[in-house]
Amino acid sequence: MVFSKYIIQMKKIFLSVVLLLSVSFSWSQRNQIIAYIDMEYILENVPEYLEAQNTLDSKIAKWRKKLDDQARHIEVLKTDLANEKAILTKDLIEEKEEEISLKQQELRRLESLYFGPKGDMFMIRKQLVKPIQDQVYNAIQSIAKRKKYDFVFDKSSDLVMLYSNKKYDISELVLSTIDRTRLIDQRNEKREAKKNEKKVAPKKELTEKQKTALKKKEDAAAKKIADREAKKKLIAERRKKLLKQREEKRRLLREKKEAAKKKKEQQKKDENNN
Q: What is the pTM for the complete model shown?
């Protein structure tokens, strides 16, 4: 996944921020209210995230193709020079070597431009992910304040959670909050657009051509919604399978630990008997 490294960094930063905000609460305080989220699941169900990922994937594919084409061209030049070196003059050899060197420098420049620390991929990724990160963080902050949670942890982060009760998982609540905020924004935009339409000109009867175009647009929107729901269902099924695999791994780990513990106790008992 293209965003994987950046998401891991984002999750670590997010978890650190949550923990730092939580430090102000006394650890000795009783009856603390704790919840957790699954950041991977939330991001995979935010439409803007999927669109951002597809956009970046498309750009990266184009950049890599351009770099691969140039690298192959350089290899062809090297092969041609090696084959013709015996019949070329010293000046021609130096000229061809200089050409290859310049093309290699250009290739390195493009690699840095596209994938360097401050390259296009980093900047575009930051532009695409930052608004999504803000959406998720604002939703969690709103829920935490409303529900008076003392701590909210990320289950998909490096934080080890050997057991987690599903009733404390607020991932779906976070998604619902994001969806509700999006609907409110859309309604406000539509209301504002209607006000502007009334100011600009009176409403006119649509022509048959406009009606046909509008119907096509509505059909396309309905198809997009249906596709999105299908993606959500597929993601939910994948998540269910992944959770099952995780639980199985944790069960095996617990069994191994228990077996090791029993073995150690038996060895200690045998040593005492001897």
A: 0.47
